[in-house]
Amino acid sequence: MPLPLLFFFLLVLLLNSSNYSCAAKVVTCSYIVPFHRRAHTISITDYGGVGDGRYINTKAFKEAVYAIQRLRRAGGTLLYVPPGVYLTGPFNLTSNMTLYLAAGAVIKATQDSLNWPLIPPLPSYGRGRERPGGRYMSLIHGDGLQDVVITGKNGTIDGQGGVWWNMWRRRTLKFTRPNLVEFLNSRNIIISNVIFKNSPFWNIHPVYCSNVVVRFVTILAPHDSPNTDGVDPDSSSNVCIEDSYISTGDDLVSVKSGWDEYGIAYGRPSVNITVRRVTGSSPFAGIAIGSETSGGVENVRAEHINLYGIGIGIHIKTNAGRGGYIKNIKVFDVYMEDARKGIKISGNVGDHPDGKYNRDALPVVKGITIKHVRGVKVQQAGLMQGLRNSPFTYICLSDINLGGVTGPSRTPSWQCSDVSGIAYQVSPSPCSQLISRPSGSCPNYSS
Length: 447
Known about the structure:
Largest sheet: 22 strands, parallel
Structural class: mainly beta
Helix content: under 10%
Number of helices: 4
């Protein structure tokens, strides 16, 4: 096990330990969703579930969830998944329930795409993210729910995504690939103490949700797996992502809010997103915003982030035609090692759903504060490219040291255009568009 991963799991063990006397001092946002212990428990085996890795358990999961929904027991019901491998197609959850995976329990997705129902595209996207039309339903799905928990003793939810990745590579996809877990129009969601692996597409996708906690999870996918983002809060508010390890083929955490004219029309921003104590690795970004931000993104705070073997440490990305806004973003206390690029803030990233988007719909990007960042073996410190007719403003970099790779390099340390702001104690020296000052603090850009 790599040392950074080992150290991370030791930290998680300490934080989970009842003997850890300093646990009360750990800053957390997980209180936004109260944790309810269920008064009642049923087992998937009560409904015919078989954990032999061969039997298809879709009917068992559907019947168990239907029983919880129909009985409506006071205090809700816990669905227990005992040790074993439970092969299944997609299924829905219901309100006031906990899906609990015991140690050694694996919920494994069937690889036959014929077993995956199609659902309508998200209204803020207008079509499937990859292909026109609908999209495949996520393995574990919920719409219009409240008070739902997915947890356990580090059981595994395995999307068996290889068959989907190969369809993407061969360009034989008919519809957009499924997420591993998706909640729509839901509130008071907790996802904790579960391993997610090999998602066909994005791993955890709360969209049009409020009050969501993702904590103490591990998310794994090969670095060459396409679009396997870790956690993507999308047009959602009050989202807390903490104390997790993510190693995937795309962004570890990416905040989104809809795609071009569809996101503008839907008009639901992502607001009040906190990302804290996340460690991980990816050929793409560690902490990302975008590129789908047409509904707006505001009040994002990411801190105590450790990145190893990363493409871009911090990536804020949008495009002409997106519209929307990205403002009041705060990123503090980041360590990155072996990175292609330390910081990237760019207005020319991402594709478009169709030719109907308004090319004059220019995003507004302002109030970006990045402080206390350390980097080792960083090939390029930063790239900041705003839009000529909508420059990115009020950018503040403070106490940043991004050590470069050894040997000659043809790439300048910083490349900037159509941006403005200030810089304090930044090494290597930032581009001239940022007014360099020897000391001071970043202004409050929250307004």
